[in-house]
Specification:
Distance between the termini of chain B: 36 Å
Structural class of chain B: alpha/beta
Oligomer: heterodimer
Helix content of chain A: over 70%
CATH topology of the largest domain in chain B: Rossmann fold
Shape of chain A: globular
Low-confidence stretches of chain B: none
Strand content of chain B: 15-25%
Shape of chain B: globular
Bound molecules: iron/sulfur cluster, FE2/S2 (inorganic) cluster
Mean pLDDT of chain A: 91
Largest sheet of chain A: none
Strand content of chain A: under 5%
Radius of gyration of chain A: 11 Å
Number of helices of chain B: 29
Low-confidence stretches of chain A: none
Distance between the termini of chain A: 30 Å
CATH architecture of the largest domain in chain B: 3-Layer(aba) Sandwich
Order of helices and strands of chain A: HHHH
Number of helices of chain A: 4
Number of strands of chain A: 0
Number of strands of chain B: 36
Number of domains of chain B: 5
Helix content of chain B: 25-40%
Largest sheet of chain B: 7 strands, mixed
Radius of gyration of chain B: 29 Å
Structural class of chain A: mainly alpha
């Protein structure tokens, strides 16, 4: 079973894949927007922590999404 | 209050041109097609009758309803003779009286004369009609050949068939055919030897009868009668209320004797059910007074301790103190609440208000999370509002009905009966479902196409249908041009046209022959009015929201939104799923589906409630549980929802609950979630409170209190007690005031109030200045969002994959006689039909594993393991297994994983990779859970503290 961090990364990746047919850039934006609308502040904060954690090997699109989230925050 | 029966006009209403005639000297005008019997009843002239009743087509067998018509020979039956212009009818003459008496004598000579001790005494049409025709004597005597020795059939737990009381009027047979559509009854034999038989002359319980009660209601004597009437006597008052089981929202007359409920009789004027019902609403209400009900509040320091009964004051004070303590220690956002789709609109509104106003955050979610949250997302995105487009009656205008991921005969039985009627009239049916549900083939119904796709491939399938519609030029271009966003359409059309999305390209993936998919798509696009009905087989997938949008795309492309007989119709599971969603139960939106980040909407609520609202969305249920295991979420108020049993991945739920410091459960029974609770607040049943439910067609209907709550308070009052203990100062004295607040704050509800509901019986939202009479059908001239939005729905396979360890796909569903986690129905005689959950497995898969029918099997996924018994059937395809989730012993959700819909986190219940092996007993989890459950339900027997 996934722990919370793994779960957040998984969810962001899954949302991205469902937007992927729009093309990488649009999908990253749409995913970040989705997180803004539906994730609670603590989840968003955890996403930013994940981004800053050098130990975590983040899939590229998820890194881009969390990066966008930081800009939005 | 006196008890009156609903008026019976004898034959159904007609809707032709106006026709004027004279009956017994009285002139009247009625629609053409009306029977003389009905016309007479409309002017309070009740012609004697036995075989006629207004819920059934006339039959003309008893010959009691004879009349004289000027200029016509003989004595025609008024039930089968339609009115004609200028007709002059006489209903009472000496000759008619004599004829009727003769008919009645024949009936009575073969009827037991035990009226005074008969259960139906005072509520029997035969008795009434004998009086009406003035029968005083039976010339034939009672000694001749008769049926008085017939043996009673008491097999059905809810009603008894006594053939001695049967007059072979065949109302029951016709009710089973016309109203229910099960065709379980026949008139066996001819002439004097004729008798009523269930299926192949079996007893009712073993027959095809689904115990809907339509025959019992139609029976004019006590031949078919509710056991509760036999036990308790006939009712002396009646209150109209709404069923608390499923999203059809049938209305019933709760017929009472004093404080006791005698029977629930479907209400003829109910706009959702039109006088029909299913076994649950009609009969399975015994749980309301079941001994297991907890009626005193209880508290305990930790879940290892036994429960301690306390006063309401102590329990509520404890809850308020604990919640405030936790917030002080861990922050404002460390607690939350869950609203219930079982409770009223007013109650769910108050729970979310408690969270937003009292807890100061948006950590509120609802059980709709695990069923129809993708409907909310998908229909809002494409059409602009999170609700079905039609009323139920619209199905009577459908030419093609597409059912996907729903099993209406089990899940939404009364609507299924209406749908079946339309199908028997010739509408075409397409079923997309991995399992051969009953609708695929049932008496007089056969689906034109059944597409038994592999679970998890809905999006690929619907996109392939769209491919056919677009590439074969079947799009309703004019509609799309006028009504939809053209750029979005162009992008979508290009996407679906790609050859990689053709039925041929996905054949291997879905397992459905391409030609069948093409044929089904053509039928849907060209067969006339085409309506889509869908259920949890659509939403409970990792692409649930995409599937809802793919459905919406199909409907828009073919011009099937905004007209009768068409539309996109989610079949909602629980009685008030629609309402719970409407009321702002989701963590990101306020009532009426307005996002919490919208400052203007927030300001409206802030002014009304005198509080500042958190502009950030709150946690969804699975995220609450994640946060609990992380130590940041510590307290929860759960009203009428058993998340431990109903939510996926039981171990995860259990771990989350176990990590919290204050779990408050409000329910009727010590449910499974309560095993992890610190405070238990007893709940009240739908019979014990006032309020409203909103059904799947957005219909708001009154729930009326028929008895005092056993626990002392209606659920809305309990929420108010908690709120006030937390200092919120609420002062509601009746739920109507809560509805007034909802209306004040929610534009789509602006015109809704209890007076309007009392007057109209029910209303469908939106109801406001723009729609003063409510809205049976949505998106008529334009979509709520303006232009209909096509959304590209790329097929993204679920990550839940079969492999060598878990080679089978498990999908789940429900059965007619049981309801969700079964807390209510398991406490009724409905267990006679479904005493345990079984695992359906295809003969090939069973044989490969050495499993025989009825064997215990172990069902294992990467999340966990459980055991249950196998049922071998070819209803499921090879490679697919299926079970229900009504019994806590089965713990089917130990198996389901934490994968969920990408947009809404609605769990992926419908696809789990599993292995099935023979077994000889419960799994370790089942054993240890059973022990925990037993320990956790101990109650100290001390007197409640005052
Ligand atoms: S059981 Fe009742 S409804 Fe059926 S034929 Fe007999 S009397 Fe009529
Ligand atoms: S209870 Fe319903 S299904 Fe059963 S015989 Fe009567 S009408 Fe038919
Ligand atoms: S169909 Fe649904 S609402 Fe109607 S009686 Fe059955 S459970 Fe109740
Ligand atoms: S009521 Fe008309 S024939 Fe029976």
């Amino acid at each position: 079973m996934m722990n919370t961090r793994e779960h957040l990364i998984y969810m962001a990746g899954q949302i991205f894949r469902n937007f992927a047919s729009r093309g990488e850039e649009a999908a990253v934006s749409a995913t970040a927007e989705h997180l803004v609308l539906y994730w609670d502040p603590h989840m968003k904060a955890q996403a930013l922590d994940i981004l800053d954690d050098p130990e975590i090997d983040l899939p590229e699109p998820v890194r881009a999404v969390f990066g966008k989230l930081r800009v939005a925050a | 209050m006196t008890f009156t029966r609903e008026k019976d006009f004898g034959t159904p209403a007609a809707s032709g041109e106006a026709v004027s005639l004279t009956i017994d000297g009285q002139e009247l005008t009625v629609p053409a097609g009306t029977s003389i019997m009905r016309a007479a009843a409309m002017v309070e002239t009740d012609i004697p009758k036995l075989c006629a009743t207004d819920s059934l087509e006339s039959f003309g067998s008893c010959r009691l309803c004879l009349v004289e018509i000027e200029g016509r020979n003989g004595y025609p039956a008024s039930c089968t003779t339609p009115v004609a212009p200028g007709m002059v009818v006489r209903t009472e003459t000496d000759k008619l009286r004599k004829l009727r008496r003769g008919v009645m004598e024949l009936y009575i000579s073969d009827h037991p004369l035990d009226c005074l001790t008969c259960s139906a005494n005072g509520d029997c049409e035969l008795q009434d009609q004998a009086g009406a025709v003035g029968l005083r004597d039976v010339r034939f005597g009672y000694e001749g050949e008769n049926h008085l020795e017939g043996c009673k059939d008491e097999s059905n737990p809810y009603f008894t068939f006594d053939p001695a009381k049967c007059i072979v009027c065949s109302r029951c047979v016709r009710a089973c055919d016309e109203t229910q559509g099960t065709l379980a009854l026949t008139v066996d034999g001819r002439g004097f030897a004729s008798k009523i038989a269930a299926s192949q002359d079996e007893d009712f319980l073993s027959s095809e009868c689904v115990s809907c009660g339509a025959c019992v209601q139609a029976c004019p004597t006590s031949a078919l009668i509710e056991n509760t009437v036999i036990e308790k006597g006939t009712p002396d008052r009646a209150v109209v209320t709404t069923c608390a089981y499923c999203g059809v929202g049938c209305t019933f007359r709760a017929e009472m004797r004093g404080e006791e409920l005698v029977r629930m009789v479907p209400w003829k004027d109910g706009k959702a059910n039109h006088g029909h019902s299913c076994v649950k609403g009609r009969f399975a209400w015994g749980y309301a007074r079941h001994n297991d009900r907890i009626v005193n509040p209880m508290v305990r320091g930790s879940v290892d301790e036994p429960w301690r009964e306390v006063s309401w004051e102590e329990a509520i004070g404890h809850v308020a103190r604990e919640f405030r303590r936790i917030q002080n220690a861990y922050g404002t956002r460390s607690i939350g609440g869950i609203t219930s789709s079982r409770c009223t609109n007013e109650e769910t509104f108050l729970v979310q208000k408690l969270v937003r106003q009292g807890f100061g955050n948006n950590n509120v979610d609802t059980c709709a999370r695990v069923c129809h949250s993708p409907t909310g997302y998908g229909l809002k995105t494409t059409f602009g509002t999170s609700a079905g487009t039609q009323d139920f009656d619209s199905v009577q205008h459908a030419d093609v009905i597409l059912v996907i991921g729903a099993n209406p005969t089990d899940g939404h039985p009364v609507f299924a009966s209406h749908m079946k009627r339309r199908l028997r009239q010739g509408a075409k049916l397409i079923v997309i479902d991995p399992r051969r549900i009953d609708l695929v083939r049932s008496p007089h119904i056969e689906a034109s196409h059944h597409l038994p796709l592999r679970p998890g491939t809905n999006v690929a399938m619907l996109t392939a249908m769209a491919h056919v519609i677009v590439t074969e030029g079947l799009v309703d271009e004019a509609y799309v041009h006028e009504r939809c966003d053209r750029d979005a359409y162009a992008e979508w059309a290009e996407f679906v046209s790609d050859p990689s999305r053709s039925p041929e390209a996905i054949e291997e993936l879905t397992g459905v022959p391409a030609q069948e998919v093409r044929a089904a798509a053509r039928l849907y696009a060209t067969g006339g009015n085409a309506a889509i009905y869908y259920g949890l087989g659509v939403t409970e997938h990792s692409q649930g929201s995409s599937t809802v949008m793919a459905i919406a795309n199909l409907a828009m492309a073919t011009g099937n939104v905004g007209k009768e007989g068409a539309g996109v119709n989610p079949l909602r599971g629980q009685n008030n799923v629609q309402g719970a969603c409407d009321m702002g139960s989701f963590p990101h939106e306020l009532s009426g589906y307005r996002h919490i980040s919208d400052a203007e909407t927030r300001a409206l609520f802030e002014k009304d409630w005198g509080a500042t609202l958190d502009p950030e969305p709150g946690l969804r249920i699975p995220n609450m549980l994640d946060a609990a295991t992380d130590g940041t979420f510590k307290g929860i108020f759960i009203q009428g929802e058993d998340i431990l049993q109903s939510d996926p991945n039981t171990r995860h739920v259990a771990a989350g609950l176990a990590a919290m410091e204050c779990v408050v459960v409000q329910d009727l029974f010590l449910n499974e979630t309560a095993n992890y609770a610190h405070v238990f607040l007893p709940g009240s049943t739908f019979l014990e409170k006032d309020g409203t439910f909103t059904n799947a067609e957005r219909r708001i209907q009154l729930v009326r209190k028929v008895m005092e709550p056993l626990n002392g308070y209606a659920d809305w009052e309990v929420v108010q007690l908690v709120a006030n203990a937390m200092g919120l100062g609420w002062g509601y004295t009746h739920p109507s005031q809560i509805m007034d607040e909802i209306a004040r704050l929610t534009p789509t509800f602006a015109g809704v109030n209890y007076d309007a509901l009392e007057q109209r019986g029910s209303v469908q939202w939106p109801m406001n200045e723009a729609a003063p009479d409510g809205t049976p059908m949505m998106h008529i001239d334009h979509f709520v969002r303006g232009k209909g939005m096509f959304v590209v729905t790329d097929y993204v396979p679920t990550d839940e994959r079969t492999g060598p360890r878990f080679p089978l796909l498990l999908t789940t569903g429900r059965i007619l006689s049981q309801y969700n986690v079964g807390a209510q129905t398991r406490r009724t005689a409905n267990v006679d039909w479904h005493a345990e959950d079984r695992l359906e497995i295809h003969p090939h898969d069973a044989e490969n594993r050495g499993v025989r029918d009825g064997d215990w099997v172990s069902l294992r996924s990467r999340a966990g393991e459980t055991t249950l018994r196998a049922k071998i059937t070819d209803r499921v395809a090879p490679g697919v297994v299926y079970t229900t989730f009504h019994h806590p012993d089965t713990q089917a959700n130990v198996i389901t994983t934490d994968f969920s819909d990408w947009a809404t986190n609605c769990p992926e219940y419908k696809v789990t990779a599993v292995q099935v092996t023979p077994s000889n007993g419960p799994s370790d989890w089942q054993k240890s859970y059973r022990e925990l459950a037993e320990a956790s339900r101990r109650i100290e027997t001390a007197e409640p503290a005052e």
